[in-house]
Every structure is written in C-alpha cells, then in structure tokens.
Amino acid sequence: MSETTEAPQRPSDDRSDHPVLEAEGLTKLFGRVVGLRGVDLRLHAGEVLAVIGDNGAGKSTLIKCLTGAMQPDRGTIKVDGQEVSFRSTQEARAHGIETVYQTLAVAPALDIASNLYLAREIRRPGPLGKWLRMLDKREMERKSAEHIKELGITTLQNIHQAVETLSGGQRQVVAVARTGAFGSKVVILDEPTAALGVRETGQVLRLVKDLKEQGLGVILISHNMPNVFEVADRIHVQRLGGCAGVITPESHSMEDAVAIMTGAKELSREEQALR
C-alpha cells in the first residue's frame, strides 16, 4: 500500500451547539509584560471569527497559544469539547487546526502541487516508497487538482506552475488552499490580505467564504475593517492583552469596532452578555 496523507474528515456544514475551538482564561506572561490576561474565545464550525486589535493587543500571542507555537501559563483550550494541551504546531495540526501566518510558508521554487503537499508528501507504493522514499508526484498532482476544484479556486489553472511565478495574491491563495485541503476543523489566517491589491484581496476573501461554506471554523486576524465586516460572523476585539468584547457586523459599525479597539468605547454588560 502507498503511504499517503489524506485530508482529515471534515465537519458537517451545520453549526453545532458546542464550539469546535474554545479557549478559557488564557494567560501568558513575558516576565513583567502581560501578553494575554484571561482571554476567552469561542469558534463554531461554519463560522468566521475575526480577531482585531491594535499593535501589542495580544493577537499574535493568542494565535500562537491556540496553534501550539506557544504554551499559555494558565487557561484551557478545547477542541470539540475535549481539553487539549498543544506542545507544538504539529500537535495542533493533528487535531485539525491549520494556520497561515503572515510570512507565507511556501517554497517558491516548487510547483503548486508540491506546495500543497509540503511536509505531507505522498510516497510511491511498495519498496520504492518505503525503502527508497520516492515520491508519488503524479498522485500528489491528481489530489491537488481535486482539492483546488473542491475549494472552488479558479485563479490557479496550472498545478505544474512554480509558485515563484505567481502573483502575491495567488501565492496567498496557495497557502490558504493548503490549509483548506488539510484543515479538518479550524483554519487560522494571519493578515491574509496584507500588501495585496483589490483584485487579489477579493480572491482571498472569496476563499474564506468558501471555507466557511464547507463547514470549517475560520479565525481571521486583520487590520482591514472593510474586509472584516465583509466576511466575519463575529468580531473578537483584543485590547492590552485582554478581550475588550465580541461584537457582530450587525450590532456594531466599523467606527464602533475601532473605538472599542482603542479604548474610546466600552461595551455594556448587556452587550458583553450577548457574546
């Protein structure tokens, strides 16, 4: 039998009663500097949760704790209601959590198919794969084409094309497509539209919506308020290491979001209870 890396089974499109990813009381200290202070976060399947905040608000620290890149000093993380403790990003990936960081982890010299299966390469069947560790490039190309079709991506026509020949937006789409192909529960995107043009930004946002429609939970970290309000179901506002509140595009305006983010406005107890 060939040694293959199959995409984990995906959740159904219907949002469940319990969160697919949940954090309670996450605290992270860097000496006397507070990175996170008692942060709660809840993400459901088939939902886009935006995380916004000024520089130093704790967004990156929060994401690193959720993905195993960093361990919180206190607090709990649950996946599908089961408490977990990630010691590495590999452990988080094994639980169905995929992340695209702001610095794209793509190999420019490799083609699209090879990038989609980066660190998940399929080996040839029999002794060639088991002992000589030869890769089954044809199978990876076939499955890559299937993944791209399933995700509804039309901007990547040739999976044999080297990533270094793609535009910035197309490279971002490749990175997001990889998480969409293998993320069985949660996809986390760190500033996916930063430094992209209008057209390329639209491509990435459409892919975010496609991931949501497939039943994945999506966490979107972004400074771009129009993008956030276009795709987010709920918006988690970070401020000074803590959560200043959770709002929705229906309940609050972009101006409200910025005001909460900067401390110019605080949510009432009634508004806080709705999150």
Automatic annotation (TrEMBL):
It comes from the Bacteria. One of its GO terms (molecular function) is ATP binding. The keyword Nucleotide-binding applies. Keywords: ATP-binding, Nucleotide-binding. This is Fructose transport system ATP-binding protein. Residues 21-265 form the ABC transporter domain.
